[in-house]
Write a structure and sequence with these properties.
This protein is an all-alpha fold. Helices cover 48% and strands 0% of the residues.
């Protein structure tokens, strides 16, 4: 599925491997949502909502997917106050991972891949306790962006793998001249990252 044969430039093999693992993860039951519900959320983020999950989550997913800069605390709390913080965090996780894969395909000018079929099974119930909202819209531990999804189990490692493949490994974050070969160097990466954050009105 992720061979990028239609891409105008060569694409690193680790991207295809990471995207394949991400696709498998999206189809698998999460902490609070079934595989079918997670894929319904993903479809909503693409503007293809057709039921399959709670309407509050579908509405949030669609807005996150199509107009992320318009999402602020009232929109997030509108979902969380109805279905709870954990399903809302899981929805954010699904949409953010989907956005990484879809955004890469859009940037390359190639078709987005079809969503996978859902895997059977019930949610794991792996939800952390004792987390606070702090200055964020949803509960999370103290720390930077990488801990934003820690309320629900199973999402952090996949998000981290996507970050390593599309951005940089964590240990390289303090290396101002680090770069990929082939690929961007650190200053070029930060220009892209900061421009994207500004464009999406990232509240961080």
């Amino acid at each position: 599925m992720f061979d990028f044969t239609g891409a105008p430039i060569a694409v690193r093999s680790d991207l295809a491997e990471t995207f394949t693992a991400t696709w498998d993860h999206l189809a698998t039951p999460g902490a609070t949502l079934t595989g079918a519900e997670r894929l319904a959320v993903a479809a909503a983020a693409r503007g293809e909502a057709d039921g399959g999950a709670h309407p509050a989550l579908l509405a949030l997913a669609e807005r996150l997917g199509r107009a992320p800069g318009s999402v602020h605390e009232p929109e997030v709390r509108a979902a969380a106050d109805v279905v709870g913080d954990a399903p809302t965090v899981e929805t954010v996780a699904v949409v953010s991972m989907l956005a990484c894969v879809d955004g890469t395909h859009d940037a390359l000018g190639i078709d987005r891949p079809p969503l996978p079929d859902p895997e059977p099974g019930e949610p794991t119930g792996d939800v952390a306790t004792g987390l606070k909202r702090r200055r964020t819209h949803l509960p999370m531990p103290p720390g930077p962006i990488p801990v934003a999804l820690d309320l629900v189990g199973g999402e952090h490692d996949v998000r981290e793998a996507l970050s390593v493949a599309t951005y940089m490994p964590g240990p390289e974050m303090d290396q101002p001249v680090w770069g990929r070969d082939p690929g961007l160097d650190r200053p070029q990466m930060e220009v892209v990252a900061s421009r994207t954050s500004w464009h999406n009105d990232c509240f961080y």
